[in-house]
C-alpha cells in the first residue's frame, strides 16, 4: 500500500504483519510469538463483535488497535471496549494513536455503541494523559485474575438456557 508524506493508512491486519504486531504487543507489555499472530488474527476476524486495525506508515506497521462491542445486562445500550492500542515507541506523538482511537470509536458507534471504555496499566501515566486529551475519564478501577486450569463445577458445564421464567 502506497503511503505518502508519512501519513498513516488504517487497514485490517494481515498475516504478513505478524512480526510487526508481535513487536508492538511486546512494547505494550504482552510478548507474543509472531508465529501465533496469524491464528489470533483469524479468530478475531471471525468475530462479529470485534475488529482490529493497524496503522501503516511508509509500508511499515507502526500502530495497532482492537475493539469489541457487547450487549450487557447492566446497561440498556451496546457498549464498546478498546482492548488494544499501541503505537511504536519511535513514531509516537504524530497522531497515529489518535487516528486509531477515532477509528475505533466510529466503528463502535456504527454498531450501536453509546459508550466506549478501556483499561490501562497504572504505570502508563503518559497513556492516561493521552486518553484524557481525547475525552476519556477515569471511572473505575481494573482488577484482574489469571484463571488456572482445574476442576470445572458441574454448573459451569451445563448449557445455558436462553429462556427465563
Query: What structural class do the secondary elements suggest?
Result: alpha+beta
Task: Note the main sheet.
Answer: 5 strands, mixed
Number of strands: 5
CATH superfamily: Gcn5-related N-acetyltransferase (GNAT)
Which percent range fits the helix content? 25-40%
The shape is globular
Radius of gyration: 18 Å
Number of helices: 5
In spatial order, strands of the major sheet run 1-2-3-4-5
H/E series: EHHEEEHEHH
C-alpha end-to-end distance? 55 Å
CATH architecture: 3-Layer(aba) Sandwich
- Poorly predicted runs are 1-5
Mean pLDDT: 90
The CATH class, by name, is: Alpha Beta
Q: Estimate the strand proportion.
A: 15-25%
Q: What's the number of domains?
A: 1
The CATH topology annotation reads as Aminopeptidase
Which tags fit this structure?
single chain, 165 residues, alpha+beta, Aminopeptidase, five-stranded mixed β-sheet, 5 helices, 5 strands, 29% helix
Molecular structure report:
- The termini are far apart.
- This protein has helices spanning 18-28, 37-45, 96-110, 125-133, 154-157; strands at 9-11, 50-57, 60-71, 78-87, 113-118.
- The chain is α+β, with helices and mostly antiparallel strands and 165 residues long.
- The protein is globular, with a radius of gyration of 18 Å.
- It has a single domain, classed as Gcn5-related N-acetyltransferase (GNAT) (Aminopeptidase, 3-Layer(aba) Sandwich), CATH 3.40.630.30.
- Helix content is 29%, strand content 24%.
- It is built from five helices and five strands, in the order βααβββαβαα.
- A hairpin with a 6-residue loop joins β3 and β4.
Amino acid at each position: 500500500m502506497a503511503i505518502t508524506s508519512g501519513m498513516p493508512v488504517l487497514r485490517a491486519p494481515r498475516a504478513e504483519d505478524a512480526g510487526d504486531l508481535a513487536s508492538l504487543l511486546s512494547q505494550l507489555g504482552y510478548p507474543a510469538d509472531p508465529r501465533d499472530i496469524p491464528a489470533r488474527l483469524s479468530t478475531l476476524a471471525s468475530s462479529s463483535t470485534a475488529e482490529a486495525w493497524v496503522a501503516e506508515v511508509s509500508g511499515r506497521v507502526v500502530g495497532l488497535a482492537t475493539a469489541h462491542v457487547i450487549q450487557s445486562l447492566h446497561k440498556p445500550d451496546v457498549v464498546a471496549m478498546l482492548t488494544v492500542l499501541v503505537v511504536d515507541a519511535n513514531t509516537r506523538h504524530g497522531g497515529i494513536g489518535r487516528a486509531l482511537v477515532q477509528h475505533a470509536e466510529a466503528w463502535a458507534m456504527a454498531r450501536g455503541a453509546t459508550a466506549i471504555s478501556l483499561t490501562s496499566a497504572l504505570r502508563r501515566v503518559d497513556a492516561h494523559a493521552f486518553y484524557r486529551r481525547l475525552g476519556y475519564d477515569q471511572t473505575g478501577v481494573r482488577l484482574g485474575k489469571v484463571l488456572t486450569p482445574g476442576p470445572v463445577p458441574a454448573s459451569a458445564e451445563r448449557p445455558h438456557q436462553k429462556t427465563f421464567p
